[in-house]
Amino acid sequence: MGQCKALIFDLDGTLINSLPYHILSFKDLLLEHGIRVDDASLLRLIGMPTEQILRDLRKKHRFRENIADLREERRYHYFKFLGRRNIVFPGVKKALTSLRLTYKLAIATGSSEVVFVHSTDKDFQEMFDAVVTINDVRHGKPHPDQLLLAARRLRIRPEDCAYIGDSTYDGVAAKAAGMRFIGSATGYTSKRELERHGAITVIRSMAELQKAKL
Questions:
Q1: Whether CATH 3.30.2410 fits 19-82
Q2: What number is the average pLDDT over the span 79-96?
Q3: What is the per-residue DSSP string for 67-87?
Q4: How large is the average pLDDT for residues 96-104?
Q5: pLDDT at residue 21, rounded to an integer
Q6: What residues contact residue 38 under an 8 Å CB cut-off, 6+ apart?
């Protein structure tokens, strides 16, 4: 690993507290189609792109609805539950303002561009030198495509990047991309699980990232 020159972030559960609204949106969507899904089943899938989550749920519950149509419906439910709430975790903007003085910053999120824009404000969005959403790649996490594209857009070698995320899928993607992985215990994944998936350290807030040895 070379000197860390760039920080690439997951979005949901890492920088913004959106996971509860994503969980609610999946449950509400499927309930409209007569299917009840428990939180535990969804938590095992959160971190992957919506389309893949729906495909996995279809295998288990055997519904016939079109995945593309369900994905659009799911966004509606997410926007409904989210409303106009500010869901950026406390201290994140302050930490990013400091970190961008030293590192290039990017986002690699399994969310779509429209969900990213709807979930954050313009000041937040403008803190990043590059943003890669699921719309930009063929394969989302745990594949490394998004992370590698973010590094290319930053013009930084993958080995000089650190990826910060809250799920095991983030750890798998970081390893496949040849990046160091920093786990964030701000989502639903335990510190132990993040370490099992390659986290060199696990932070509990973005403020701790400023003190981490990268």
A1: no
A2: 96
A3: HHHHHHHHHHHHHHHHTT---
A4: 96
A5: 96
A6: none
